[in-house]
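ok, trying the design again with the full structure, not the truncated one.
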C-alpha cells in the first residue's frame, strides 16, 4: 500500500511536473522516480498522451499499393488489413475507400465506385483483383497523379471530407521530388489529412526473418508519415490488423486510452491542455482510462501516473 506521506508528495509533484510538460507522442517516460517508504522501491512516473482529433461526417481513404512481384507474398495481410480498417471505421461516418497502384505509369484505375459502408471482404478482393499491374514504387507520384489528373477521382473524392492515404510497399519510395515537397503538397489538399505507411522499417526493429537491403527500407514513406504524426506498420508483421486499427483510430476522437503500464490507481492524474480533467474513470480490467467528457479537438490530453512495481525475491518487477 502507498503511504499517505508518499501520496501527498506524489500529488504535489505531479501537479507541478505535469503542468510544464509539452508532449508530442502518445507515450512518454519521465525520468523521475519516487521512493515508497513502506516498500523501499522506486516508482517511475509515466505519462501517456494524445492530441485529440476532430469528429468527421465523411472521410475519403486511398490505399496506394506496390504491386511489384516481391509484394505477392503480402496479399493475405493486405486484404485482412483493408477489411480490418473497414470494420473499425465509425458507423456514423460516411467513408469511401479506394485502392490504386504505387506505380505512376498506370495510375488510371477502372471506373469502379469506392468501397463504402456495408462493403465486405469480397468487395475488397474484387477491387484489388482489378488493379492494373505496374511494378513501380513511386507512391508519392502515384497519389499526386491520381488526385490531380484522374478523371474518375474527381467524381468521388470530396473536398470537404477528411483524407487518409495508406502507403503499402516493401521497397523505398522512388519519386523524383523530395519528401518535403510531397508533404507540403499533401498538407495543402484539405483541412484534415492523414498518412499511414506499411513498409520495411529499419533493420534494427524489423520483424523480417531475413536481411533486406537498406535501400529497401521505407525511409521516405516513414518521414512523410511522421510529418503528419501517422501510424507506421512493419510490413513483415504477420498481422497488420492491430496496426491498421491504430491508424483508423487517428481519424476519430479519443474517448478512452489503454495505459502503457499498470498504474498505482490513486496516483492517476488527467490533464487537458495543462488543466486538470476530472470527468473520467479507470477500469482495471483492461487498464484503460475512459473520458466521460470528450476533450475538444486539438487539445493535448495527458494521463500521468506512477508505475506499479513489485519486489519479487529482491528483484523489482515492472508491470
Amino acid at each position: 500500500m502507498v503511504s499517505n506521506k508518499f501520496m501527498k508528495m506524489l500529488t504535489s509533484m505531479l501537479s507541478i511536473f505535469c503542468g510544464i510538460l509539452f508532449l508530442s507522442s502518445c507515450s512518454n517516460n519521465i525520468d523521475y522516480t519516487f521512493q515508497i517508504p513502506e516498500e523501499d522501491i522506486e516508482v517511475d512516473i509515466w505519462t501517456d498522451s494524445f492530441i485529440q482529433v476532430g469528429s468527421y461526417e465523411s472521410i475519403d481513404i486511398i490505399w496506394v499499393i506496390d504491386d511489384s512481384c516481391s509484394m505477392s507474398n503480402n496479399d493475405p495481410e493486405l486484404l485482412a488489413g483493408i477489411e480490418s480498417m473497414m470494420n473499425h471505421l465509425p458507423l456514423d461516418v460516411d467513408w469511401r475507400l479506394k485502392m490504386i497502384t504505387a506505380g505512376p505509369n498506370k495510375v488510371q484505375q477502372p471506373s469502379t465506385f469506392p468501397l463504402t459502408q456495408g462493403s465486405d471482404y469480397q468487395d475488397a478482393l474484387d477491387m484489388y483483383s482489378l488493379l492494373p499491374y505496374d511494378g513501380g514504387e513511386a507512391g508519392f507520384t502515384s497519389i499526386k497523379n491520381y488526385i490531380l489528373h484522374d478523371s474518375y477521382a474527381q467524381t468521388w473524392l470530396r473536398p470537404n471530407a477528411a483524407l487518409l492515404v495508406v502507403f503499402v510497399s516493401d521497397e523505398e519510395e522512388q519519386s523524383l521530388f523530395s519528401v518535403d515537397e510531397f508533404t507540403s503538397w499533401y498538407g495543402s489538399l484539405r483541412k484534415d489529412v492523414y498518412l499511414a505507411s506499411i513498409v520495411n522499417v529499419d533493420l534494427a526493429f524489423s520483424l523480417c526473418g531475413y536481411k533486406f537491403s537498406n535501400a529497401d527500407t521505407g525511409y521516405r514513406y516513414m518521414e512523410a508519415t511522421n510529418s503528419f504524426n501517422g501510424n507506421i506498420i512493419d510490413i513483415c508483421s504477420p498481422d497488420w490488423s492491430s496496426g491498421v486499427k491504430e491508424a483508423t483510430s487517428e481519424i476519430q476522437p479519443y474517448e478512452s486510452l489503454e495505459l502503457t503500464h499498470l498504474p498505482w490507481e490513486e496516483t492517476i492524474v488527467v490533464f487537458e491542455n495543462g488543466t486538470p480533467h476530472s470527468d473520467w474513470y479507470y477500469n482495471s480490467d483492461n487498464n484503460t482510462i475512459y473520458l466521460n467528457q470528450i476533450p475538444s479537438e486539438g487539445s493535448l490530453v495527458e494521463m500521468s501516473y506512477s508505475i506499479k512495481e513489485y519486489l519479487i525475491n529482491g528483484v523489482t518487477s515492472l508491470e
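Keeping the full-length input from now on. The first helix runs from residue 4 to 19.
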